[in-house]
Amino acid sequence: MKDSFKHQGMRNKLAETVAAKGIADKGVLDAIRKIPRHLFMDSSFEDHAYQDKAFPIAAGQTISQPYTVAFQTELLEVKKGDKILEIGTGSGYQTAMLIEKGALVYSIERQKELFKRTNLFLPKLGYKPKKMIFGDGYKGLPEEAPFDGIIVTAGAPFVPKPLLAQLKIGGKLVIPVGDDVQVMTLFTRTSGKSFERKEFGDFRFVPLLEDKN
Ligand code: SAH
Q1: What is the extent of the structural domain holding 114?
Q2: For the chain, what is the domain count?
Q3: pTM higher than 0.85, yes or no?
Q4: Is 43 a catalytic residue?
Q5: Which atom of ligand 1 is the closest one to the Cα of 111?
Q6: Which run of H or E residues covers position 132?
């Protein structure tokens, strides 16, 4: 695992690109400058790691586009010490960004291979989530609820009810909703029973899969 001045230079450029697309959150841009994205990808894609694009990772999944990770993190408005649930650990890049923002992160992944790999990899880089869970994110994580924020990094055909139920009052759920194309959707819990819903344009994710067992 190596990082270099060249990588650092490419990261600074990537942060500029993402900022030019409208991301203003300084903590998010600092995280892009800091996190060695090339180490989260297969070495065959290393040369492309600092393009603002999604790339394949193991188990037919993808590492999200940096702009998308930044956009979702900005919507979540993470504050230091916030308890955040992430659905879809994947490569762990989004997890690392949440940790850079000072969040206490609980992250769920349903692909065993990715779960194992990322669970070992993140601590090697100094990123320590509160808990990594192998399981089905549709159910959320009731034993650790309520959360200040929940972020879903796969395309959800519908909004899983347990996720809304596991938000604190004032808490936020950021979730791309749809089948082929997803609308980035932000729910804010305004009371025990009510949620405000806002939509933020189209994105494309790999699907949030429901476990059949
Ligand atoms: N944030 C990750 C995105 C990975 S792609 C990254 O940038 O690397 C989405 C991830 O969601 C995949 O790893 C996929 O296996 C996972 N996923 C899909 N359905 C899920 C479910 N029901 N529960 C948990 N994870 C799920």
Answers
A1: 5-203
A2: 1
A3: yes
A4: no
A5: 15
A6: strand 131-134
